[in-house]
Design a protein that fits this description.
- The complex is a heterotrimer of chains A (291), B (324) and C (408).
- Chain B has helices at 5-20, 22-25, 28-53, 62-77, 84-110, 115-135, 157-181, 183-200, 205-231, 236-239, 242-255, 262-277, 285-299, 303-315; strands at residues 145-146, 233-234.
- With 324 residues, chain B is mainly α.
- Chain B has a domain at 27-241.
- Chain B is globular, with a radius of gyration of 20 Å.
- Chain C has two domains: 2-151 and 286-359, Response regulator (Rossmann fold); 156-283 and 374-406, Response regulator (Rossmann fold, 3-Layer(aba) Sandwich).
- Chain C has a six-stranded mixed beta sheet with strand order 2-3-1-4-5-6, sandwiched between helices. In chain C, strands 8-7-9-10 form a four-stranded parallel beta sheet, sandwiched between helices. In chain C, strands 11-16-17 form a three-stranded antiparallel beta sheet, with helices on one face.
- Chain C is globular, with a radius of gyration of 21 Å.
- Classes of the chains: A mainly alpha (291), B mainly alpha (324), C alpha/beta (408).
- The interface between A and C is medium-sized, with 31 and 35 residues.
Chain lengths: 291, 324, 408
């Protein structure tokens, strides 16, 4: 009995982190209708930035969050405004290929800068663990999970209560009407992308402290984000959370009861099946309320 | 530059004959590059039957390369008594058959998706096939599969495969050309332009899409079998490659999406750029491919042939561009 | 950052070395040996050791001995080695190009997943490859005639470890094995199962991880639920590190942890710190081994020469790599030729004593099981001590190992 409890616990912890890693992608898909295949590399940029900052300033990696998020927000804003905007209302394949191209370029740049070796961010509490009943928790993973949940709540609050959030939601639901009301849609799109990139970077920090990473992992995190969105729903942090938790639990259950090599098969099978059955996920499209 | 049917055939055969001289005069490195060019061109045209003509851009055609190669390898290793040409024939047949079965099985559900969803779903299929090949011991994906040698004695393997790809690529081109000239091809093009209207006007869109999907898959799989043989030893990572998935789209984009010769131009150009120009600069490949992709999307979504057409339209002072 | 500079430096040395050599050695002929090595990527830790070994040997032959004499002619060794970034596809491209350009002899990369496809290519081109990077059975059971390896095949590598286990007191009863889904680890795990079952231990579980694992918590959960006395991990060093770290983080304790590849490397011991105490690993050479060598003198002298050139701590891969080049030279001298076919025949018949070990290959090309089999090392107080066989022992084995939270 305790094995299944442990497996579920591990899955939920992992799932919370997957959710954070996917929420940015989900937002872009929902608001700009763009499939951002460079999402994974933004996550990794966050991880590498956290690595060098925490080493240079000798601080805990989680404390580098504000800096990393700020840098990625600005970078994301510029990236969208200059490049992605040109493909936004054209064919969806165009934006997909554009972001893929940028991902390849950034991946190569990171290999030049950091080498293809696996890196790890090791916080001081790297080897600690604690038990809750029959279940053992890895301290680093739990702190990563807590950070994820806090950030997801912040994003949800931002979208629901702030002026920026209102404008983003309005633009997503009815772009033309928003324009007519005086919203600078290009600016809003770029802000949304900036927010998305910032959260991708935050996810990178969290991932960096629990798993070894290298530039080649970017495809994995983009795929991950896609599956989470397809599972849980497009455009909302709640959808990302549900999708992420589901994916995490499915992963650990498959690893435990089918075989440790099978989580990837399951992930891709789920992707294909869900795309066929319900592409907008369990919670559906968050911004389609008034369509 | 519209040529008559007869003269186009003659031209194609002439070019093929010219290319056939390649291995006799070029150094081994260039023969190998030539192999890759012909192989890529064949794959590109096979992909374009579905992606270019019908507009269903698949991001996961490597699935068929892998399925074809592994099916052929597994069968050939158990039929060791046969002579070399028979083994190859067996492999190509089995590979094509397995791809036909796979594509027919998934055609109905997966072709209900459109645009990017279809592309990503195919990527998912590619990865599922890769993971199953890798993790189920029977397929020997992780340990790797050895192919029996099929090169006739006295012939250099590089030359043999060059000619094999030339013949294979030509066959694929002829099939694609026939499709394009037929009612079936016209139907596919109409699906790309406006699927719902085409359906309304009586084009059997579902049947045509499925047929195009299966033909594309089978041709890709057969080329994949030859590829497996040319490598001699394959693992999951040598055939189920994401860079192949991407390249197939780029070939058509570069040369002209939806045209017949565009994918060939795109394939030749891209292979030349990456193998010859960037050959020693392996550290630049990702960057260069990415940059090319970005430039293509922003500046020339119609590819080389699209630019050629725009130029010729301007020269003939046509002011309105046809629907693209 | 530091390591990147070392890597760039090493890379520059390789690229500069042929230039230096060709400037000096106008008199002698050149013996070109090609290959690729993982200087970056997942296998870089050991790849760099292998690369240093190749450079050490080539430099020693050229500078200290003034070249090698084969069939009456003097040759300088020219190494043409490139970084394959631990990517088999890149390695095959590099090797194929070298064959196209006429290189006749090859050294191996590190990691069976890279060595296998490159060996398939050199075999097809009928060029010899002597490698110290691939032990998977798959390399030696395909009928290759031109590929030679410094290790016995993976399924035979575990005999020494099983023998050590039998000597431990109080006697362990059960074992479990974890391995990754790739050419080397799968066959090595087969060897573990064969040797341990034959030695009378009861197998509890056999866990297969994906080739590039990122999270092993489910496996460790099962290990905690069904704990063996001995836990054997056969995988590459990066994965061993991941497993060890997660074992500490989840407080998964066993009486003895054996990690085939990992604890031999100084960087691994450093990353784990005090937690690396009492970890077992296999090792194929130590500078105290008593072999005599025609060129280097003995193992200690080789180690001294190495340390005069590099600050990176020496590992057995370094010695194995240098031995590859020495084996080529000895074979060429025996064959009195630098033609690939003749050298290949000499390699097949090899029986040479070198500072690394006595070099003798089985008919399939892997190292002779007895002569080239491994020893067992254990980390004690941050150092690697040899605990088996008796003849080479430098310290008694610690068993059972202290729990993670009790390690000082």
């Amino acid at each position: 009995m305790s094995l299944i409890a442990q497996t579920l616990a591990d899955g939920l912890v992992l799932g919370g982190i997957y959710a954070l890693a996917a929420v940015g992608f989900s937002l872009i898909f929902g608001v700009l209708h763009v499939i951002n295949l460079s999402h994974g590399i933004l996550v990794l940029i966050g991880a590498y930035l956290a690595l060098i900052t925490s080493q240079a300033l000798h601080i805990d990696p989680l404390l580098t969050l504000p800096l990393v998020m700020a840098v990625l927000f600005l970078a994301g804003y510029g990236y969208q405004r200059l490049l992605i905007q040109r493909t936004v209302d054209r064919s969806p394949l165009g934006s997909m290929l554009l972001t893929f191209g940028v991902a390849l370029m950034l991946q190569n740049i990171m290999i030049w800068l950091f080498s293809p070796d696996m890196k790890n961010i090791t916080p001081t509490y790297a080897f600690a663990s604690f038990k809750l009943g029959p279940v053992t928790f890895d301290a680093v993973r739990v702190s990563a999970l807590v950070a994820s949940l806090v950030l997801l709540s912040c994003l949800a609050a931002l979208l629901k209560f702030s002026a920026l959030g209102r404008v983003i939601r309005a633009t997503a639901q009815q772009t033309l009407a928003a324009r007519l009301c005086g919203v600078n849609v290009r600016h809003v799109y770029a802000l949304t992308f900036g927010v998305s990139a910032a959260f991708a970077g935050a996810a990178g920090i969290v991932i960096g402290i629990i798993l070894p990473f290298s530039p080649a992992d970017e495809a994995l995190w983009t795929m991950n984000a896609f599956v989470v969105v397809v599972l849980g729903g497009v455009g909302s942090p709640a959808g990302a959370l549900i999708g992420g938790l589901l994916l995490g639990v499915v992963n650990t259950l498959t690893a435990q009861y089918v075989g440790p090599s099978f989580p990837n098969v399951t992930m891709f099978l789920l992707l294909v099946l869900l795309l066929l059955v319900r592409p907008t996920g369990l919670l559906g499209h968050a911004f389609s309320a008034s369509r | 530059m519209k040529l008559s049917f007869a003269s186009t055939v003659v031209l194609m055969l002439a070019v093929a004959a010219l290319l056939a001289f390649g291995p006799l005069v070029l150094p081994p490195f260039y023969v190998r590059v030539g192999q890759l060019m012909l192989y890529s061109a064949g794959l590109a045209v096979a992909w374009a039957i579905l992606g270019g003509f019908a507009g269903y851009a698949s991001f996961g055609h490597a699935a068929f390369i892998g399925v074809g190669a592994f099916a052929a390898g597994l069968v050939e290793n158990r039929a060791s008594g046969l002579s070399a040409p028979l083994l190859l024939l067996l492999g190509v047949t089995v590979g094509g058959l397995c791809c036909a079965v796979l594509s027919a099985a998934i055609a109905y559900p997966i072709l209900r998706l459109r645009g990017t969803f279809f592309a990503i779903a195919m990527l998912g299929v590619s990865h599922v096939c890769a993971e199953i090949t890798n993790n189920v011991d029977f397929f020997e994906g992780s340990l790797g599969l050895n192919f029996p040698s099929v090169t006739p004695s006295g012939l250099e393997p590089a030359t043999f495969f060059y000619w094999l790809y030339l013949v294979g690529g030509l066959a694929v081109l002829l099939i694609a050309w026939q499709i394009r000239r037929s009612r079936f091809g016209a139907g596919l093009l109409s699906i790309r332009e406006d699927e719902d209207t085409a359906r309304m006007l009586g084009v059997p869109t579902e049947r045509y899409k499925r047929l195009a999907f299966v033909i594309s898959a089978v041709l890709t799989g057969m080329l994949g079998v030859i590829y497996g043989h040319s490598l001699g030893y394959i693992t999951t990572d040598s055939v189920y490659r994401d860079d192949t998935n991407l390249s197939l789209i780029v070939y058509s984009m570069l040369g002209g999406m939806g045209t017949l010769f565009g994918p060939i131009i795109g394939a030749f150009s891209l292979v030349f750029i990456t193998q010859v120009l960037l050959g020693r600069l392996l550290d630049f490949h990702l960057f260069a491919t990415g940059l090319l992709l970005v430039i293509l999307v922003l500046a020339a979504p119609g590819g080389v042939l699209g630019i050629a057409r725009t130029v010729s339209l301007r020269r003939h002072k046509v002011t309105t561009a046809p629907a693209e | 950052m530091r390591r990147r500079d070392v890597l760039r430096g090493a890379g520059a040395t390789i690229l500069a070395a042929p230039a230096i050599r060709s400037a000096e050695a106008q008199a002698g002929k050149k013996l070109v040996i090609g290959g690729s090595v993982p200087l970056t990527g997942a296998a870089a830790e050991t790849g760099l050791n292998v690369n240093n070994g190749y450079i050490t040997a080539a430099t020693y032959f050229n500078e200290v001995l003034g070249g090698v004499e084969i069939a009456g002619e003097k040759y300088t060794i020219e190494l043409k080695l490139f970084d394959d970034a631990s990517d088999p596809a890149r390695a095959t491209t590099l090797i194929q190009r070298q064959i196209d350009e006429g290189t006749n002899f090859f050294l191996g990369s590190f990691g069976s997943n890279i060595v296998l496809p490159t060996a398939a290519i050199t075999e097809r081109a009928k060029k010899p490859m002597v490698q110290t990077g691939g032990g998977s059975d798959a390399i030696f059971t395909r009928g290759f005639k031109f590929v030679f390896g410094m290790y016995p095949r993976a399924t035979r590598q575990f005999a020494a470890t099983a023998a050590l286990f039998k000597t431990l007191q109080p006697a362990p009863q059960t074992y479990s094995v974890i391995y990754t889904n790739d050419a080397f680890s799968k066959t090595a795990a087969e060897g573990v199962r064969l040797s341990c079952d034959a030695a009378g231990f009861k197998r509890l579980d056999s866990y297969e991880l994906p080739a590039k694992p990122t999270d092993v918590s489910s496996v460790l959960g099962s290990v905690r639920a069904n704990t063996p006395d001995l836990l054997v991990c056969v995988m590459h060093d990066q994965n061993s590190l991941l497993v060890a770290r997660q074992m500490v983080a989840t407080n998964t304790n066993v009486k003895l942890l054996f990690q085939g590849l990992g604890p031999q490397l100084a960087s691994f011991r450093e990353a784990l710190g005090k937690y690396s105490e009492a970890l077992l690993c296999s090792t194929y050479w130590d500078e105290n081994v008593p072999f005599k060598d025609k060129f280097f003198g003995n193992a200690k002298k080789f180690a001294e020469y190495y340390r005069s050139k590099f600050t990176r701590p020496i590992a057995y891969h370094t010695a194995g790599a240098a031995a590859c080049i020495e084996t080529y030279i000895l074979a060429m001298q025996a064959a009195k030729s630098t033609k690939p076919e003749a050298v290949r025949d000499a390699l097949s018949a090899a029986d040479y004593e070198t500072f690394y070990s006595r070099i003798k290959f089985t008919p399939e090309g892997d190292g002779d099981e007895i002569l080239m089999g491994g020893m067992i090392g254990q980390v004690q107080k941050g150092k690697l001590e040899i605990v088996y066989p008796e003849a080479a022992r430098t310290a008694p084995a610690i068993y059972p190992a202290p729990a993670w939270d009790k390690k000082a």
